[in-house]
Amino acid sequence: MSDRLPAITDDPGQARRDLLEHGLCLVGGLLSTDTVSDIRTALYRAAKQDEARGVRQKGFGLDYGDGNHRVWNVLSRDPVFVQLVQHPVALTLVRDTLGWPALLGNFSANIALPGSDGGALHADQVFVPEPWCDEPQGCNIAWCVDDFTACNGATRVVPGSHRLGRNHRPEDGDHSVPLIAPAGTMVALQSRLWHRTGNNESDKPRAALFAWYSRTIYRTQENWFLSLSPWVLENASDELLTLLAYRTEGFGLVNGHSPR
Predict the structure, then answer these.
(1) Domain map of the chain by residue range?
(2) How many other CB atoms are found less than 10 A from the CB of residue 135?
(3) What is the pTM of this model?
(4) Measuring CA to CA, which residue among 27, 172, 142 is closest to residue 89?
(5) Cβ 217 vs Cβ 70: under 8 Å
(6) DSSP type of residue 146
(7) How many CB atoms lie within 10 A of CB 21?
(8) Alpha helices, DSSP H, located in 69-222
(9) Which terminus of the chain has a smaller tally of CB atoms within 10 A, N or C?
(10) What are the strands, taking DSSP E only, across the chain?
C-alpha cells in the first residue's frame, strides 16, 4: 500500500493507467462551471425536499453518527443527474474495469454536514466472498459537488489496497489519505479499494455523488423498476436503458425479446 495519490488528469489514457495502478483515478475538466453549479443546486434542493417531507436519510450502516445526510435515487430528482451516469468518460472507465454490459446498481449522494464523524473503512464489493479475484466486481464513479479539502470530510482512500484481495479489517488500522480535489472532479474507484467518508471539521457541508456500477451477475441495490421516475426513461439512450436493466444484455428477456 502507498500514501501517494495519482494527480488529477484530463488525459483518459492516464486515467485508465491510474485506475489500474492505484485502484482509483481523478479526472478534471469534464464539467463546466455552470454544470457544476446546476448539479449543486439540484442536489441541495433534493436534500431540502427530503428534510421538508421528514424523510431525511441518516444513520447509514457505514456512517459514524448522524452527520451524513444521504440522498437516495438522485437519478429521479433532476435531469442533470441522468446526464452524469452516462457521461462518456465515466462509461469508458466502467467498460475498462467491468466490460460491457454493466448495471447501474445505485446512484446516491452523501452530504457530510459540519461536525460529522465520517465513516468506516470498507471496500464496495463486501458482498463477494474472500479471497477476491484480480477482477473487480464493481466500479464507483464519484463526482465532487463541492471542493474536497483535508478538513471538510473529503473521501479518504488507501491507495493500493485493491491489490490485497480482501476487505478492510480492524487490525489493519487506518492508513487512509484524503482526496483533495476541486468541485467538478470525477473520481473512479475500483470496488476492491478501501475508502471511507472523512470527518468534516469545517463550518460548511461537503457533498458528493456516487454512481455504483457492477457486473450484470449482481442485483442492483436500487430497485429501478419500482423507484425510478417515469420521465427518466423518456428518450433514454440505449446505454442508459442497459444500465437500468431495460435491455436484454443487462438483465433478461421479456417474452423472448429485449424489453422496450
Answers:
(1) 12-226
(2) 12
(3) 0.94
(4) 27
(5) no
(6) S
(7) 15
(8) 79-85, 88-98
(9) C
(10) 24-27, 68-71, 103-112, 138-144, 156-157, 177-178, 186-190, 195-196, 206-214
User: Which grid cell sits at 146?
Assistant: 463541492
Of 146, 155, 150, 118, the closest CA to residue 206 belongs to 146
- Nearest to residue 185, comparing CAs of 207, 163, 170? 207
- CA-to-CA distance for 148 and 153, rounded, in angstroms? 7
CA within 13 Å, CB half, 219: 5
Cα dihedral sign, 190-196-198-204:
positive
What type of residue sits at position 77?
Answer: R
Q: Which three cell numbers stand for residue 47?
A: 436534500
How many CB atoms are closer than 10 A to CB 56? 15
Give the CATH class of 12-226: mainly beta
Please give the Cα distance from 180 to 249 (Å, whole number): 37
> Grid coordinates representing 61?
450502516
Question: Judging by beta carbons within 10 Å of its beta carbon (0-12, 13-18, 19+), is residue 238 exposed, middle or buried?
Answer: exposed
User: Residue 171, Cβ neighbours under 10 Å: how many?
Assistant: 5
- Are residues 39 and 209 in contact, defined by beta-carbon separation less than 8 angstroms? yes
